Amino acid sequence: MSKVKIRKRPLKDNRHSLYLDYYPPLRHPKIGKLIRRENLKLYIYDKPKNDYHKKHNKETLLLAEHVRCNRQLDVQNRRFGFLSDDARDADFIEFFKEFNRKKQTSLSDQAAMSVKYFQAFAGETLRFSDLDEFFCEDYKSFLLSGPGISRRGRPISRNTAVSYFAKFRTALKELYRRNLITDDLYSKVDAVDPKETHRERLEIEEMQVLVKTPAKSDLIKRACLFSALTGLRFSDVQTLSWNEVRGYKGKYSLQYFQEKTEGAETLPISDQAVELMGVKKKDSDLVFKGLIYHQLKDFLKKWLDTAGIKKNITFHSFRHTYATLQIEMGTDIYTVSKMLGHKSIKTTEIYAKVVDRKKIEATRKINLEL
Description:
Elements: E1 3-10, E2 15-27, E3 34-45, H1 51-79, H2 85-89, H3 92-103, H4 110-122, H5 133-145, H6 158-177, H7 185-188, H8 204-212, H9 218-230, H10 234-239, E4 245-246, E5 252-257, E6 264-269, H11 271-276, H12 296-307, H13 315-328, H14 333-340, H15 345-363
Antiparallel strand pairs: 1-2, 2-3, 4-5, 5-6
Helix pairs in contact: 3-4, 4-6, 5-6, 9-13, 13-15, 14-15
């Protein structure tokens, strides 16, 4: 447990300012950062020259001691699961905004929209102390049945609700980790179950057609094919740098951090995938420098139209393609799960279901004239 002591710092005018010293450092309840010192904005005279100076020093030291005792009590209370008034009254909305801002990538404004939907439910401010299980369950219901607040005014889909509520739960997890709330609401409140959707992907024959089909942007084409050969998400392809590439011909791998899960990963990749990466210049350079998400939709539509493929393909479809092709070609589901960087094998089982349906369809292709 941290100890709180009063320290003095000399000033130029024969005075000392007073501050509190925390050891070990404490996490500030409002900003979440570790702090070692807190300026009390109090001072005492170095050598009191008269009764006024002596009285001032005595009263100021008493006040400083009073503050120190309160801070020490805060430390002890936090250890036993209580929070100071500062922590209880801090604004969750501001915390949620900042937390999502740090997590947000160039993929979309989904993080910002998750905050807007939360504000539509909770209002402009919400104290940490107002967060409890009932509040969380009510917010979940709001996301599942509440009206849309976008320009179109349509309700959000269930899978969007899954994403928004997941961001909220992750923020709750961080609050508890920082000792800013006393209940582990992340563990107590269940996530929204996603609706199983059709995951569009490409057959190996369609991939071969795309390889031979000319495209307006060689950069985006290479990035898409690279994802199909590695299973990487757009965010990981976009941020991949040359210093994350390891090995030599026949034994290449990537050592990188997943943008979505923030997990450290080592992924073996083929020589063909390395060829798609282009020419290396500097170790610090991005492999697919200049890759921008908002250019994908128009590019993919034109590229697939030229190839004669009538499917609604997104960049993420190439990751789905990688997973299903691996399973179809006999790679066990545990290995595929590891290659995709999934935390749970249940996520990977979705791809196995796709392959099972193809097996059923295959049995119907053999018919005898009985």
